[in-house]
Amino acid sequence: MKEAVAECPDTSITDALSQWWQSLAYRNRAAEWSLYFMFVTGILLWNQISIPWQVERLLLLVHVVSSLLLFPVAVVPFWLSHRKLLVRSKKKLLKVTGQLIDYILLGCMASGIYLVLQGNRGDDFGWVVYMVHLVTALVLIPLLIRHAAKWSVLKPLWSWCLSKSNGSYS
């Protein structure tokens, strides 16, 4: 009678976790989609865009809840695991845009946390925090699109637009 022998895998748990962490640093579609979703739901809350209060209230709830869930689950792990690439990269454009994204994302995150915890109470400081959150988001998205251009989830969109502008309608 043969005995069943469990074979030990070649990789340990720490190796598997290390590989998983490294895989998060590359072309993370969930993180990119999350940032775009938070941007769209947030920009619609801008007081320059007029929408009915019932819709705005729902958008605020969606923006806050999605930010509290998506940012720590999808964006933060990618952001932290991506640091090693920033240090090792030889591509100046990616290094510069990556560092700018770091600072801008930090400002957007900090102001967002303040707005969730304290809200904009209508005073000068609340207005400044609101403006920091808005301006960092407005700067972050085009910078993110440029930084991730080669691998972006939006690449099919501008590839399609470029093919239409070149007269190639196939």
TrEMBL record:
<keyword id="KW-0472">Membrane</keyword>
<feature type="transmembrane region" description="Helical">
    <location>
        <begin position="59"/>
        <end position="80"/>
    </location>
</feature>
<feature type="transmembrane region" description="Helical">
    <location>
        <begin position="100"/>
        <end position="119"/>
    </location>
</feature>
<keyword id="KW-1133">Transmembrane helix</keyword>
<keyword id="KW-0812">Transmembrane</keyword>
<protein>
    <recommendedName>
        <fullName>Transmembrane protein</fullName>
    </recommendedName>
</protein>
<feature type="transmembrane region" description="Helical">
    <location>
        <begin position="33"/>
        <end position="53"/>
    </location>
</feature>
<feature type="transmembrane region" description="Helical">
    <location>
        <begin position="125"/>
        <end position="145"/>
    </location>
</feature>
